[in-house]
C-alpha cells in the first residue's frame, strides 16, 4: 500500500495472547448486542405504534446495551462476573445457570470463539495496526448481523448504516485511492439487490429478501469497492446453496422455512475482507 500506518510493536509472545483476549471480550459484547438489539427495536416499535394509535404508553422496564446487567434469561438472576468470563464461565457452569440450572444457549461461547477467531485472522493477515482495528470492527459487526438475522430475520439499520459510513471512513483514512470505487460500490450494492427484489416480486409476487439485505450489500460495497460486488454475490449465493442443501439433507423439518440471506452476505464479506488481494487476483484471472 505504501501508506504510513501506525503499527503496534509487540513481541509475538505478548501480542497474540492480547489479540485473543481482545477478540473474546469483543465477542462477549457482541452477545449482548445480539440478545438486546432486537428486543430494543421491538420495544421501540411497540411504543411508536401505541403513540400513533393514541393508546397509553406502557411502563416497560428500561432496556439498553448497558442496563440491566447480564442476567439469566430463564430466572432473571444476575450473572456473577466470574461466571461471565468469555467461554470459561460457560465451561465452568457446564452451560447451565448457576441459580436455576436452566441450559444456556451455546450461542454465547460460539459467538465468543468466532469473535476471537475473526480478530486473530484480521491481525494475522493485515498486521497489528490501526487499519486492522477498523477491519475487526467490520468483521465483528458482520458476525452480530449474521446471528441477529438468523435468529430474528432482522438486519437493524442501527448496525448496517454505521457499517456503511465506517467503510467509507476506512477508505478515506487508509486507502484514499479506493474511495471512488467504494462510493460506487455502496450505491451499486444497494441498487443491485433492490432491482432483484422488485424483479422477483413482479415475477413471483413474493418477497425474496428485505431492505436490510440491500443496506448490508451497500455496506460491503463501501468496504470492498464495486469491483468485488459480483464476487460477493457469487460467494454468498454459493455458500447459501451449500448450506441450503445441507439443511435439506440433515434437517428435513426445516424444508421450505424462510432462510435469511444476511448470514451468507456476512460470510462472503469475511472472506473478501480477510482474503482480499489474493482472492481478487485469482478472480480477475478467471475473467481474463
Ligand atoms: Zn437462571
Summarize the structure in words.
This protein has 288 residues and is mostly helical. The chain has 2 domains: 118 residues, no CATH class; 159 residues, no CATH class. It is built from 9 helices and no strands. The longest helix has 41 residues. The chain is globular. The two termini are 24 Å apart. Zinc ion binds next to loops.
The SS-based structural class is mainly alpha
The helix content is 55-70%
Number of domains: 2
Largest sheet: none
Count the beta strands: 0
Strand portion: under 5%
Q: Output the radius of gyration.
A: 21 Å
How would you state the average pLDDT, rounded?
88
Hetero groups bound? Answer: zinc ion
Shape: globular
Compute the number of helices: 9
Instruction: Write the element-wise H/E pattern from the N-terminal end onward.
Output: HHHHHHHHH
From the N-terminal CA to the C-terminal CA, the straight-line distance is 24 Å
Low-confidence stretches: none
Amino acid at each position: 500500500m505504501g501508506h504510513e500506518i501506525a503499527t503496534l510493536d509487540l513481541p509475538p509472545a505478548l501480542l497474540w495472547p492480547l489479540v485473543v483476549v481482545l477478540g473474546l471480550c469483543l465477542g462477549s459484547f457482541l452477545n449482548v448486542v445480539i440478545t438486546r438489539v432486537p428486543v430494543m427495536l421491538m420495544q421501540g416499535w411497540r411504543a411508536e405504534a401505541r403513540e400513533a394509535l393514541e393508546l397509553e404508553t406502557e411502563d416497560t422496564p428500561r432496556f439498553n446495551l448497558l442496563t440491566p446487567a447480564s442476567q439469566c434469561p430463564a430466572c432473571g438472576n444476575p450473572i456473577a462476573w466470574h461466571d461471565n468470563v468469555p467461554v470459561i464461565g460457560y465451561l465452568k457452569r457446564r452451560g447451565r445457570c448457576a441459580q436455576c440450572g436452566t441450559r444456556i444457549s451455546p450461542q454465547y461461547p460460539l459467538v465468543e470463539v468466532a469473535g476471537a477467531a475473526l480478530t486473530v485472522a484480521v491481525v494475522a493477515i493485515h498486521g497489528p495496526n490501526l487499519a486492522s482495528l477498523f477491519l475487526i470492527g467490520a468483521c465483528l459487526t458482520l458476525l452480530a448481523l449474521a446471528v441477529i438475522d438468523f435468529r430474528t430475520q432482522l438486519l437493524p439499520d442501527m448496525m448496517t448504516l454505521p457499517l456503511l459510513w465506517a467503510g467509507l471512513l476506512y477508505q478515506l483514512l487508509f486507502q484514499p485511492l479506493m474511495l471512488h470505487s467504494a462510493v460506487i460500490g455502496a450505491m451499486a450494492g444497494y441498487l443491485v439487490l433492490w432491482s432483484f427484489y422488485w424483479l422477483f416480486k413482479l415475477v413471483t409476487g413474493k418477497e425474496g429478501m428485505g431492505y436490510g439485505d440491500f443496506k448490508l450489500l451497500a455496506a460491503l460495497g463501501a468496504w470492498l469497492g464495486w469491483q468485488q460486488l459480483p464476487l460477493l454475490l457469487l460467494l454468498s449465493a454459493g455458500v447459501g446453496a451449500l448450506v441450503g442443501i445441507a439443511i435439506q439433507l440433515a434437517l428435513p423439518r426445516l424444508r421450505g422455512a424462510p432462510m435469511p440471506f444476511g448470514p451468507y452476505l456476512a460470510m462472503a464479506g469475511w472472506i473478501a475482507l480477510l482474503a482480499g488481494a489474493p482472492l481478487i487476483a485469482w478472480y480477475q484471472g478467471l475473467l481474463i
